[in-house]
Specification:
The N and C termini lie far apart (45 Å). Helix 1 crosses helix 2 (28-54). By secondary structure, this protein is an all-alpha fold. 24% of the residues are buried. It is flat, with a radius of gyration of 16 Å. The protein is 70% helix and 0% strand. It has helices spanning 14-24, 28-54, 61-71, 73-80, 85-98, 103-116, 120-125.
Length: 130
Amino acid sequence: MPPPGDLDAFLSPPAVAFMAAPFALLPKPAGIAAWTVFDALCALAGLWLLYRRLSPAHPLARPAFWFLAAWFPPLFADLDAGQRGGVALLLAAGSIVLEAARPGVAGALAGMAAAVKFYPAAMAIGPAPV
């Protein structure tokens, strides 16, 4: 195994390679920028799904949720490092949102989240249907 540090040393599950293939067709600087924007948009969509699922009633809950989401350093570190946390968050949040109404689709999303990055499996499997 090559030591980590550059793109030649990047090892990941096959699902990630499939997902990243369109970005690899772009010139390297454009592919990196496009991937970062894509992952950031997925992270925002995942956060929005979680916020809608929580549907807090308190008037300060909305600004508090988005302030904490914007201030959360691991999210920025994930985006800055070119990881796939935004995609995983979107898939896991989709699984949580659809768990009660469409358990089959929720399970498929949870499986895809686990295939992209393994930690969301615990996030997506944990909540009980409402």
